[in-house]
């Protein structure tokens, strides 16, 4: 009986010592300072492995063929990941204001530095710039190749046939404003006007004129399906009113990276080339619904989509 008692006492002592050692180790982990450079490493690893693609996301765009195509494509990609995505068409100026005022989450429709230069200046302090999603965009006055004119300085040769007017798109669009500046800059266009309408109306007028091989001058930009459909040319702009080549850039609201880090990274990764861009626009122009055209693109370009959705 006494032997058993000592054994129990010995066991109790061992257990007590074990608890003391464990408690000391816990105190060191909880209260001790982490070695320099290791703070937050576990949190970062968890974040890298556990980005959840969920939440509501609104992208806004102006109803140009380029922006209809790009917004629907990246919207479809984000929706496939699990986000509840809303795509909202807006007037050009309102689109910029919506993102700057946190009323919308982002856009992939910023033409810089010229086309949307004014809107950028007004709103840049309240936006997060993610850089270009397309490079090599251009704007200018466009005519059919069969017209015997190569420069804006020569366009007055067609004053009677054109009624001294250039067919434009939506009022306030950068290419419209630049065309109005060209009318003021080039003395041979004194008295001319830029007749605004819509992107669709401009394209219809262009197609009808080409069908009848009639002269027409339109506010043009590329990428755009019309350059694949018709034989067109930009008029030379020696005064550089329309500027150099542009980029189409992605802008998001402040705080999106913290609120939806996965969506932020996908939008940051979004970039494509002209052939890919034109393919979606051409399909939409042929009558395919933009959502269906976007779904077709995503299905047919898995490697590119994987690049966009590679988030950490």
TrEMBL record:
InterPro entries linked: ABC_Gly_betaine_transp_sub-bd (IPR007210)
Segments of this protein annotated with the region Disordered: 26-50
Ranges that cross the membrane: none
Keywords linked to the UniProt accession: Cell membrane, Membrane, Signal, Transport
Principal subcellular localization: membrane
Keyword DNA repair on entry: no
Signal peptide: 1-22
SUPFAM superfamilies: Periplasmic binding protein-like II
Highest taxon above the source species: Bacteria
Annotated ranges, domain ABC-type glycine betaine transport system substrate-binding: 57-299
Alphabetical list of PANTHER family matching this protein: GLYCINE BETAINE/PROLINE BETAINE TRANSPORT SYSTEM PERMEASE PROTEIN PROW (PTHR47737), GLYCINE BETAINE_PROLINE BETAINE TRANSPORT SYSTEM PERMEASE PROTEIN PROW (PTHR47737:SF1)
Entry protein name: ABC-type glycine betaine transport system substrate-binding domain-containing protein
The organism of origin for this protein: Alkalibacillus silvisoli
